[in-house]
Design goal:
Blueprint lengths: L1 H19 L2 E2 L2 E7 L10 H9 L11 H14 L3 E5 L2 H5 L19 H10 L11 E5 L12 H13 L3 E6 L2 H8 L3 H5 L4 E5 L10 E5 L1 H13 L8 H12 L1 H21 L5 E2 L8 E6 L4 H9 L3 H7 L2 E5 L1 E4 L2 E5 L6 H18 L2
Parallel strand pairs: 2-10, 4-5, 5-6
Antiparallel strand pairs: 1-2, 3-7, 6-7, 8-9, 9-12, 11-12
Helix pairs in contact: 1-12, 2-10, 3-10, 7-11, 11-14
Amino acid sequence: MLRGLAWAAAQGHGALWARGSGSLAGVLTHVVDLRSDTVTKPGPAMRHAMAEAVVGDDDYGEDPTVRELQAKAAELLGVERTLFVPTNTMANLISGVHSHPLPDLPHGTLDLAELERLIIRGLGSPYHPVCELICLENTHSSSGGRVLPIKYLRQVHLLARSYGVRVHLDGARLMNAAVALRVPPARIVEHCDSVSLCFSKGLGAPVGALVGGPKDFIEDAWRLRKALGGGMRQAGVLAAAALVGLADTEEVLLRDHQNAQRFAKGLQELASPVCSVDTPVETNMVMVRVDGLPPEELCRRLQAVSADEVAQTGHAVHVLLFPWTKRSVRAVWHRDVSVQDTELALRKWAFVLRQLGP
């Protein structure tokens, strides 16, 4: 369903972009892209690092920039080894297994009693699969970027160990979680057996992720990366971008979190019956509940620019975002959305809500 909603929104975005890419009544249009933190563009420092990267054949283990990234990431995450891979999907890929999704609690956590029940169910039973791996996501995207508490991670890991089960952390936005908790990322990862980290979301790199864990685990991962077509050659060009993204993580992500919180507070102050923020904003995501019209319609109105908008606000603003569910939209802040962009997005939202009436 979500893919269908996103596709529909993308079609509307393309048409509106073409129509409003110039100016309206002499006012230049301004685009605030809140669809995802994957839409960032490499800045000058990142592009320079990519252009100047020292490279070699990483498939032979000879790329010095990739080796530097992997070593720095291993130290940062507190793991023995890491492996640079093209995408976080590859870093999380599990094949040849039976998966059993559990419903999320409001904070993005799992019911530990239910988790233990399912683990026990497979022990010695010829009718149920044996649980060998628990997968968690931190931050938790569907819960609006919520951060999994360290106490909870510790509880999951202790439960897993007592039954001989491993824990993998999908840490696509792990650095957001670390910044929000004000702890080194290794404090989070110490409660997991393996971890992934994405460089092309909040860290702003164009491509790349890594998987981390024990030495023998990473040796197996290297073989699987090759089998999946992820053996890259002069990958230092990409690793250089990831290194730049890591260098300014705390400053950039903290600003993203503050902008998201500023927006959520402003939207709540509008006191509209159409849009509300019911989920605490802990990182760079704001989940907006939509009542009274389809989320697709709200997205269309936020993308559109009219003469009335310019007359009333003095600005022509496209706010780009996707529907998330049938009754919500998700807005995501990133390094390409400034304080000014956040204010413009809030003004545009206020204009649209006024147009919708009381």
